[in-house]
Amino acid sequence: MVDTLDRLDQLVDKSLRREAPTREEALALLRPDDFDVFDVVAAAFRVRRHFFGRRVKLNTLINLKSGLCPEDCSYCSQRLGSGSDILKYSWISPAEAAATAGQAVRAGAKRVCLVASGRGPGERDIRRVGETIGAIKGEHPEVEVCVCLGLLTEGQAERLREAGAHAYNHNLNTSAERYADICSTHTFADRVDTVRRAAAGGLSPCSGAIVGMGESDDDIVDMAFALRELDPDSVPVNFLIPMEGTPLAGTWELTPERCLRVLALFRFCFPDVEVRLSGGREIHLRSLQPLALHLANSVFLGDYLTSEGQPGADDRQMIADAGFTVEGAAERTLPQARHDLVAVRRRGAGTELPPNT
Ligand code: SF4
């Protein structure tokens, strides 16, 4: 029988070759009976360190338009009929967004994520967001701008790209199987379609997950594998913030250990992709947050869309205390060879292995 540490070593070796775990390997990472959580963290950290060193990329969220969404995503405090006591406002001006972005950039943020509630943007919204991108890039040309406006229609990704957007975020959130349990106004297929449109339109695809919504281990693995098929450049992993006034209020099912196992699973599934520690990290990982930096190479700085996050100074202190460094604007995030499709031949003539014929 293979020792548990040998099994993790094998998983690390696969990951360093950018191979995905098998379904059984992925499930085992989530099961306390299979592996001790700290062995899992140590193994996944080897993958993280190989591709990203000890760098941590900082990102910030700006909610351009808050609340009053016609969609009914059950985890969201901005949803249709939400009873959450959140800020509600229509589009903030490009100048206000640029001022907020500037503050985050000066605090170390390398990416600014512009988010607006709603099913998807109309033409005026695309124009307005284009002006906002222009205002931000005018002051900080080096900053990466990611846009998150919901479902995209034909040609909108291209227009955002032309306006200076670098990336588009649209999370899959949960597995295809249970998507209808968390939302009735759009489908998993709609979400997949938008991620594909964003990539086809020249935007760097960002798509991730929310865990802690009653999903099983199989759901988490299904979601991770579905995301891998979309070949995202960035994968945010959120832990449900069970806001009062939403259908998932009172859903507190995550433990720090569970969060670490999920992050490790995503690291093994996305070895050379930006895995981002996202919403809910403070309340679910609590004192184990620094360990999550051994798995994720990217983190949100500051507040979330409708709830407050840890103070930025505490984040920067945590990063330094844990022996990590904030990634600079001039440093690459993704490994150089990520999209290199050339594989050096290691089979056939001159080797012990049969040819690929
Ligand atoms: S997640 Fe987005 S689409 Fe869903 S309810 Fe919230 S703001 Fe609307």
TrEMBL record:
InterPro entries per UniProt: Aldolase_TIM, BATS_dom, Biotin_synth/BioAB, Biotin_synthase, Elp3/MiaA/NifB-like_rSAM, rSAM, rSAM_sf
GO biological process: one example: biotin biosynthetic process
Top EC category: transferase
Protein residues bound to [2Fe-2S] cluster: C113, C146, C206, R276
Cofactor note: Binds 1 [2Fe-2S] cluster. The cluster is coordinated with 3 cysteines and 1 arginine. Binds 1 [4Fe-4S] cluster. The cluster is coordinated with 3 cysteines and an exchangeable S-adenosyl-L-methionine.
Family of this protein: Belongs to the radical SAM superfamily. Biotin synthase family.
Protein name: Biotin synthase
Species of origin: Allonocardiopsis opalescens
Highest classification ranks of the organism: Bacteria, Bacillati, Actinomycetota, Actinomycetes, Streptosporangiales
